[in-house]
Structure formats: structure tokens, C-alpha cells
């Protein structure tokens, strides 16, 4: 397998609400889709984020649609270019409906980070890491 991640698909409870959050709050660039497509796509460089109704995603994968866990065992991350951008982005997300689960703080690894939860409970880390080359 090539070292490439093409899509991250999040199973969401309310596609319209989730789409509005990612488009309007996080300001991700949405890809135009035909009306009623039942999916939303956002281009993130070479990887795309897709939002798909949770029940339909489970059906497509052939697995039961069980209730989401309080902690699904993964997080998504967005690295910023400057230290104080962590605080600013978390404040912006909070003011527009995101839930801060861990306020920005200096991290043991030399950077700064905090976490928010989107309307479907997916965790996002916002981090500044002076050693990370991909920002």
C-alpha cells in the first residue's frame, strides 16, 4: 500500500449541522456537490474530509450502527504556525459552538495545544509544535 491517506470520513448524526460547522466555524473549503448528494466533502490539501450520515456509513461498511463511544480512541489534529494561534483558534471555535475539552496549555513536548469537540463528538487537537515541519 502506498503511504497515503485519501479520505477521512466522519459518520455524523445531522449532515446539515455538521456541514455548517466545518464550513462556517472551521472555515474549511467545501467541494461543490449536486443538491441532495447526501455527503459533504472538504479539501485539505491532498487529503479530503468527508461527512456522511452515521447510519449510512455503517450500512456502507456492513457493520452495526452502535452508539458512539464517549472517547472513540482517536483525534484529528490541526497544527498552527505560531504559538498563540492555538489560543486564538480555540477561542474562535468556542465562540461559534465548539466545545473546548482541554484549554490551550504548554505541552511537555515543547509546544502548545488544546482540544475541542465538534457537534458529533469528534475530538480535534489544535497544536503548535516548533519541531513539526508540515504547517
Automatic annotation (TrEMBL):
Entries under Pfam families matching the protein: Glyoxalase (PF00903)
Which top-rank group of organisms is this from? Answer: Bacteria
InterPro entries the UniProt entry points to: Glyas_Bleomycin-R_OHBP_Dase, Glyas_Fos-R_dOase_dom, VOC_core
- Give every VOC domain span: 4-129
In Swiss-Prot or TrEMBL terms, this protein is called VOC family protein
Q: Which organism is it from?
A: Vogesella amnigena
Amino acid at each position: 500500500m502506498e503511504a497515503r491517506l485519501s479520505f477521512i470520513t466522519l459518520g455524523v448524526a445531522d449532515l446539515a449541522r455538521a456541514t455548517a460547522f466545518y464550513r462556517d466555524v472551521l472555515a474549511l473549503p467545501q467541494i461543490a456537490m449536486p443538491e441532495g448528494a447526501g455527503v459533504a466533502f472538504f479539501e485539505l490539501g491532498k487529503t479530503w474530509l468527508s461527512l456522511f450520515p452515521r447510519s449510512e456509513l455503517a450500512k456502507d461498511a456492513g457493520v452495526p450502527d452502535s452508539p458512539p463511544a464517549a472517547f472513540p480512541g482517536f483525534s484529528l489534529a490541526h497544527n498552527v504556525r505560531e504559538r498563540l494561534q492555538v489560543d486564538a483558534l480555540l477561542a474562535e471555535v468556542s465562540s461559534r459552538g465548539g466545545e473546548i475539552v482541554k484549554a490551550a496549555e504548554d505541552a511537555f513536548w515543547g509546544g502548545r495545544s488544546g482540544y475541542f469537540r465538534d457537534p458529533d463528538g469528534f475530538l480535534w487537537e489544535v497544536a503548535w509544535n516548533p519541531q513539526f515541519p508540515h504547517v
